[in-house]
């Protein structure tokens, strides 16, 4: 019930005009920003959906960017591996030529010059830097050069040559997030990509009565393995074999020591994360020595890298040792090329998978954008109609107000 007074018509008219101005300003703001929701109270339910959609859209765009960067990086890495494979093909041709017994010592020395240059090119490719300035084959130590070259005197050469190539990176794996809680692991370790043979570690220490003194954690080829106090060597062997690491552990039947053999061409990476289990077993040196060159002196190590194979070929040519060239060296070259081919296939498959994720994330982003538009974008046609209606109502209100207050100053002149 309203109280009728002399101010009733005026107050009602003013209230209607202010209400129309507020609604008109809201529609004009929606048209200006093209957003249907400018405050949470405009549509609380739709606002909640909109916040979640925008958050998910932001994550999808980041996933797509991650996959694209990964694909670009893999494409560059694939090019360097493929080039090294072609170099190794030429090295193999020289090895077969040098092993056929036709060429004399001087001819082999001349071949060794080309082999040495090919070795330098192999090292250069292995130390390649990507477009972002990071080393491609250093694992997660992307600012550390992958391989360090050691120069030395070599029999048959009058000047220093490359005598050793040492890996300086790590074996940690990058995990690229390409979807919600979905990751693609990328292995960029150079001591796996450029390795020629399975590495074998044969320990001579008798471990038949050995037991772990405390709870410890060891790392075998990047896999962390928990060792419980009181575990014997057989328990350690079982845990290593069940860890998922690309390593096969066993007990030497003669020395009763621990033997480790990689299941493919790679360099073993052994550390004591906590405790001194591997050190006590005589496998590695103390914790001050960093892998992979922390193997104890009493352990027999076999299996070399691609560079070791090429160095062995060059040195055999300088010595004129055709028997060595046609035997172990040629076999190591074939094993190294086989490993390079496998790594090349893995990089190629990872690249294709990355592209699939880029395409999927692109489609997902488009679908989510449509959801954001449905919840948050203003309907321009409807908004323009509403604005025109409010203007018509405003004009009608002003017209009625003018009729109610039609008195003028002339009405008071008599």
Keyword list:
single chain, 414 residues, alpha+beta, 4-stranded antiparallel sheet, 3-stranded antiparallel sheet, 9 helices, 11 strands, 14% strand, elongated
Can you tell me about this structure?
This protein is of the alpha+beta class and 414 residues long. Helix content is 52%, strand content 14%. The chain contains 9 helices and 11 strands. It has helices at 8-33, 44-98, 105-126, 190-193, 233-241, 277-280, 306-319, 322-376, 380-404; strands at 147-152, 161-167, 174-179, 182-186, 200-203, 216-220, 223-227, 247-251, 258-262, 270-274, 299-302. The strands form 4 sheets. It has a 4-stranded antiparallel sheet. Strands 7-6-10 form a 3-stranded antiparallel sheet. The longest helix has 55 residues, at 44-98. It starts with 7 loop residues before the first helix and ends in a 10-residue tail after the last helix. The model has no long low-confidence stretch (mean pLDDT 86).
Summarize the structure.
This protein is an alpha+beta fold and 414 residues long. 52% of the residues lie in helices and 14% in strands.
Which range best describes the helical content: under 10%, 10-25%, 25-40%, 40-55%, 55-70% or over 70%?
A: 40-55%
Q: Could you say which structural class the secondary elements and strand pairing correspond to?
A: alpha+beta
Sheet with the most strands, sense and barrel status:
4 strands, antiparallel
Give the strand tally: 11
Q: Which strand order spans the largest sheet, edge to edge or round the barrel?
A: 8-9-5-11
Mean pLDDT metric? 86
Q: Globular, elongated, flat, extended or rod-shaped: what is the shape?
A: elongated
Please provide the ordered H/E string of secondary-structure elements. Answer: HHHEEEEHEEEHEEEHEHHH
Q: Report the radius of gyration as a whole number of Å.
A: 38 Å
Spans of at least 5 consecutive residues with low confidence? none
């Amino acid at each position: 019930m309203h109280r009728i007074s002399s101010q009733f018509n005026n107050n009602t008219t003013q209230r209607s005009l202010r209400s129309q101005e507020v609604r008109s300003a809201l529609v004009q703001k929606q048209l200006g920003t093209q957003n249907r929701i400018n405050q949470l109270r405009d549509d609380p339910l739709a606002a909640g959906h909109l916040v979640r959609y925008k958050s998910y859209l932001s994550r999808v765009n980041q996933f797509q960017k991650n996959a694209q960067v990964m694909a670009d990086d893999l494409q560059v890495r694939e090019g360097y591996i493929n080039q090294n494979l072609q170099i190794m093909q030429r090295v193999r041709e020289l090895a077969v030529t040098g092993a056929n017994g036709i060429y004399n010592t001087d001819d082999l020395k001349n071949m060794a010059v080309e082999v040495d240059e090919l070795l330098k090119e192999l090292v250069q490719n292995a130390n390649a830097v990507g477009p972002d300035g990071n080393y491609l084959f250093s694992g997660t130590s992307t600012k550390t050069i992958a391989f360090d070259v050691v120069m030395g005197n070599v029999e048959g050469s009058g000047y220093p040559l490359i005598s050793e190539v040492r890996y300086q990176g790590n074996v940690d794996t990058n995990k690229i997030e390409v979807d919600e809680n979905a990751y693609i692991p990328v292995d960029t370790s150079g001591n796996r990509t450029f390795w020629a043979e399975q590495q074998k570690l044969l320990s001579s220490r008798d471990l038949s009565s050995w037991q772990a003194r405390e709870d410890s954690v060891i790392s075998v080829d990047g896999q962390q393995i928990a060792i419980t106090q009181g575990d014997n060597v057989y328990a350690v062997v079982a845990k290593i074999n069940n860890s998922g690491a690309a390593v096969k552990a066993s007990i030497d039947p003669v020395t009763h020591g621990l033997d480790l053999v990689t299941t493919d061409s790679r360099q073993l990476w052994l550390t004591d994360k906590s405790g001194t289990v591997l050190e006590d077993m005589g496998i590695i040196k103390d914790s001050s020595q960093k892998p992979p060159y922390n193997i104890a002196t009493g352990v027999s190590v076999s299996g070399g890298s691609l560079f070791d194979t090429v160095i062995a070929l060059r040195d055999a040519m300088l010595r004129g040792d055709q028997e060595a060239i046609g035997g172990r060296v040629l076999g190591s070259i074939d094993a190294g090329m086989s490993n390079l081919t496998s790594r090349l296939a893995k990089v190629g498959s990872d690249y294709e998978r990355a592209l699939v994720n880029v395409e999927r994330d692109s489609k997902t982003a488009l679908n989510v954008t449509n959801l954001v538009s449905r919840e948050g974008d203003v309907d321009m046609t409807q908004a323009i109609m509403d604005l025109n209606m409010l203007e018509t109502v405003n004009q009608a209100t002003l017209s009625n107000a003018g009729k109610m207050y039609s008195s003028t100053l002339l009405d008071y002149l008599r």
